[in-house]
Amino acid sequence: EMMPYVLGQIDKNLDSYISQGEFWRRNRRILNLARIGLCFLDIDIYKTNYKGMSPDRVTFALLEFCDENLLPHPSTILSSGNGLYAKWFFDGSLPAQALPRWNLLQRELVKRFASFGADPQARDASRVLRIEGTCNTKTGKFVRVLYPHNPSQTPALYSFEELFDTFAPATRADFAK
After folding, report:
1. 50-68 core/surface letters (b: 16 or more CB in 10 A; e: else)
2. Which residues contact 45 (CB under 8 A, 6 or more apart)?
3. What does the pLDDT look like over 41-77, one tens digit per residue?
4. pTM tops 0.85, yes or no
5. Strand (E) positions, the chain?
6. Cα gap 21→141, rounded to integer Å
7. For residue 171, what pLDDT band results from cuts at 50, 70 and 90?
């Protein structure tokens, strides 16, 4: 409940990050993970054939890739000031007990989006990503939302099971066997 206040107090000209998971204690150790409400990719486009393209152009290419491969669009895509963040929001938080399946889904997302520069080292539940509206001081660019294009558009929410069954090599039923 304090998040809007805390985010409002951040100096937007400084590098600022936020954890993608929620934790029981004031650290980001996986053993203290309480829940996580999304899957995400940290995309380093500067390491790919997309280098030199605008973030908006790469976003269009990523969405086109999703369409061509019958994959759900990310809920949101942000420019990190030096790459992209693609995030798929869940319709509810996933408890820490589901972490093994969440990790598998993260690995599969990285594989599927490798050609865009999905960083395999940045896929853990304790990961921090830059906060929207803050500056990436390495580039002087501010983190901004690229998709959805209309700020009044509500980002898509997905069931974890739907995403898992779409991206993972095995379904939940396969795990039960």
Report:
1. beeeebeebbebbbeebee
2. 51, 53, 55, 58, 83, 84, 116, 117
3. 999 999 999 999 999 999 999 999 999 999 999 999 9
4. yes
5. 17-19, 21-23, 33-43, 76-79, 84-95, 128-130, 135-136, 141-142, 144-147, 157-158
6. 25
7. low
